[in-house]
Amino acid sequence: MRRLILATLALLLAPTLAAADMLTGTVTYLQRIMPPPGAVLEVTLQDISLADAPAKELATFTKTDLGGPPYRFAFKYDPATINPSNSYALRATITKDGALWMTTDTVYPVLTRGGGTEAEMILKMVAGMEESSAKPNSDFVNTYWKIETLGGEAIPAPQNSKREGHIILRADGNYSATVGCNMIQGGYAVDGAKVDFKPGPMTMMACVPPWDTLERTLVEVLGSAASFGISGETMELVDPAGGTLATFRAVYF
């Protein structure tokens, strides 16, 4: 009977003991960018007891094929390697081809001296990596391009239930655009950076100022545009002389 009770207790305690040997948590960063292709995330359990010596690595979690953050982690450590008198912490890094891209710059204590088995970690970008992490150019086609300026003038924020000014260029060669009043439709043709907009049907609601003037300006801009340029999430339409007619910003929902 006693053996049966002990065996039952062992079975009940087994999950608890196993859970105590796991470190879990999340890793994230605040920049609105994706990690570079081939990036690798590592979360490492370190013994940081000696201030004048490198930290000793005891266990590591590795994740590849990174999408956007946050990243969850869970990995085992050997409790036999833990000394209650020592200090332990988790460190997270993202590397690309062996080069450090992001790292934690805060100590995340675990296991001893009040530390638990879970951590929520924030990465910081390594100095010099900002340029290599520049956002790729948005696609000309099938992107929601919010109108920022028309004829050098900023577009006011929409009021009441008005939609914001934008243009969407579909892959079938047609577009739809508005400054916040009528919907303008038409076609377009692209040859490299050259673009040619063709007018099409539009709704005929009466537009209050300043959207009535902005709408006429948008029609003129599309009729005058000769080329376009995209840098990151910004697009501009340019006239034949190279002057900027309008600027747009890609918006992702």
Automatic annotation (TrEMBL):
<dbReference type="InterPro" id="IPR038670">
    <property type="entry name" value="HslJ-like_sf"/>
</dbReference>
<dbReference type="InterPro" id="IPR053196">
    <property type="entry name" value="Lipoprotein_YbaY-like"/>
</dbReference>
<keyword id="KW-0732">Signal</keyword>
<feature type="signal peptide">
    <location>
        <begin position="1"/>
        <end position="19"/>
    </location>
</feature>
<dbReference type="InterPro" id="IPR005184">
    <property type="entry name" value="DUF306_Meta_HslJ"/>
</dbReference>
<feature type="domain" description="DUF306">
    <location>
        <begin position="139"/>
        <end position="249"/>
    </location>
</feature>
<dbReference type="InterPro" id="IPR039366">
    <property type="entry name" value="Pilotin"/>
</dbReference>
<protein>
    <submittedName>
        <fullName>Putative lipoprotein</fullName>
    </submittedName>
</protein>
<keyword id="KW-0449">Lipoprotein</keyword>
<dbReference type="Pfam" id="PF03724">
    <property type="entry name" value="META"/>
</dbReference>
<dbReference type="Pfam" id="PF09619">
    <property type="entry name" value="YscW"/>
</dbReference>
